[in-house]
Amino acid sequence: MTSMKKKIPFLILFPIIFLTMNSFMAKDDFESETISIGVVVTDLDISMDFYQNVIGMTRTGGFEVDADFGKRSGLTDSKSFSVEVLKLKDSSQATEWKLMSFGTGAGHSNPSYIHNDTGIQYVTIFVKSLEPFLSRIEKHKVKLLGETPVQLDEERHFVLVQDPDGTFIELIGPLE
């Protein structure tokens, strides 16, 4: 009987101890809720044109990385480079899509499907209407992939294209 009395307080205290420990472990270590994504492209001008004029992103800035910082930071082996910063909206809460080029071709061939390579293969962009995107895609002669647009549910459709370096861009939203 005594062992039962010892087990009951532990069973009651365990959730309290667990929740208290969990609150100490679940710190908010992040300054921002977004991630800035760096994308190395073959041709910066062509990629800027695609992301601004087809996808509709906004250039919000840019910066230079000199050769010394490239080496000291471990980013490059003493190569300087320029970064162009794009966002879906010019907002401090918007994810940054940072494009840069080193004037060299890709180290791999463009994938035909997302399972053909490793690393980031696609990004998903949720839109209010696919209509302006489909117009820009047609105007700039960008190929729609698969049988897109494909209906997902009563309201939303899925469109798939590739950027000039083969990254898949998913657009999801209503047709109109």
Explained architecture:
This protein has helices spanning 2-25, 44-55, 67-73, 131-139; strands spanning 36-41, 58-65, 81-87, 96-101, 122-126, 150-151, 157-162, 168-173. The protein has 176 residues and is an alpha/beta fold. The strands form 2 sheets. It has a 4-stranded mixed β-sheet with strand order 1-4-3-2. A 4-stranded mixed β-sheet has the order 5-8-7-6, with no helix packed on it. The chain is globular, with a radius of gyration of 24 Å.
Overall average pLDDT: 88
Corresponding CATH superfamily of the largest domain: 2,3-Dihydroxybiphenyl 1,2-Dioxygenase, domain 1
What would you call the quaternary organization? single chain
| CATH-assigned fold name of the largest domain | 2,3-Dihydroxybiphenyl 1,2-Dioxygenase, domain 1
| Level-1 CATH class name of the largest domain | Alpha Beta
- How many distinct helices? 4
User: Strand order of the main beta sheet, please?
Assistant: 1-4-3-2
Poorly predicted sequence stretches spanning 5 or more consecutive residues: none
Distance between the termini: 71 Å
Number of domains: 2
CATH architecture level-2 label of the largest domain: Roll
| Helix-residue proportion | 25-40%
Q: Helices and strands, in N-to-C order?
A: HEHEHEEEHEEE
What does the main sheet amount to? Answer: 4 strands, mixed
Gyration radius, in Å: 24 Å
Shape: globular
Counting DSSP E segments of at least 2 residues, the number of strands comes to 8
Content-based structural category: alpha/beta
Strand content: 25-35%
